[in-house]
Amino acid sequence: MSQLYKDFTNLTIEGPTDGILTIIMGHPEGESKLSSANAGMHYELAEIWRVLDRDPDVNCAIIKGRGKGFSAGGDFELVKDMSNDFNVRSRVWREAKDLVYNIINCNTPIVSAMHGPAVGAGLVAGLLADISIATKTAKIVDGHTRLGVAAGDHAAIVWPLLIGMAKAKYYLMLCEPVNGEEAERMGLVSLCVEEDELEAKAQEVAEKLCRASHTAVRWTKYSLNNWLRMAGPTFDASLALEFMGFTGPDVHEGVASLQERRKPEFQKKSPF
Asked: Which domains does the chain have, with CATH numbers?
């Protein structure tokens, strides 16, 4: 592994091999678990793209999850700290903003390989990747409204562009899951494959990107991502409203209900 990545301890970095760097969310000892975004993971997911962009030996990156799924969403302890501590909330807001913009502005092509549950900060990278690949049984969920906060993160910047406003509102407001087959049909992901084909397909796509003209691929990415940059103000508003939600009562009920595996009982009347 390049010394550029020596400080990343919550992400497993492999390579680069033949110009391809593999980023794995989670640790080898966590094969039986889902990778949740604790404070360290959240920070590294935001920062890895800056480092990747500076690495002259990498022509493409693959991001994937370890064990049972791609990503499990935010760590409950981090969510509690955000709801109770202004300094933590401010720090994580900055990281959440950086995560989205750093992926968009990273010149290196990114391929995501999603299996099992794909939620939270990991899903940001999964859906903002240049080529997103999901297994048929992947379960993509933007879990914000279930937690009691607005759908911030990446959702407002990319879901309406990928699947249209009507579908985006349905899945984001109701927090409905999307499997890999439906996600491909709607255009939420680039490709859908069988579970045992995921790794090979991600590698195949990465190798094709490496063999292509690097300037042509990178400049095409830069041009297309201007659609996302134009949606920047919409994303900024959604992220601000999400983090305002962390100061309210609903997020406490959302966390408690998830931990107790029950339906949430949010406040019955809107305060505005």
From this structure: 3-259 (3.90.226.10)
Give the separation between CA 225 and CA 128, rounded to whole angstroms: 10
pTM of the model: 0.93
The 8-class DSSP code of residue 29 comes to G
From the number of C-beta atoms within 10 Å of its C-beta (0-12, 13-18, 19+), residue 70 rates as buried
Q: Tell me the CB-side half-sphere exposure of residue 199, using CA atoms within 13 A.
A: 6
- What is the overall mean pLDDT for the chain? 92
CA proximity to 186, closest of 194, 178, 195: 178
Q: Is the pLDDT of residue 141 over 90?
A: yes
Q: What is the DSSP string of 196-255?
A: GGHHHHHHHHHHHHHHS-HHHHHHHHHHHTHHHHHTHHHHHHHHHHHHHHTTSSHHHHHH
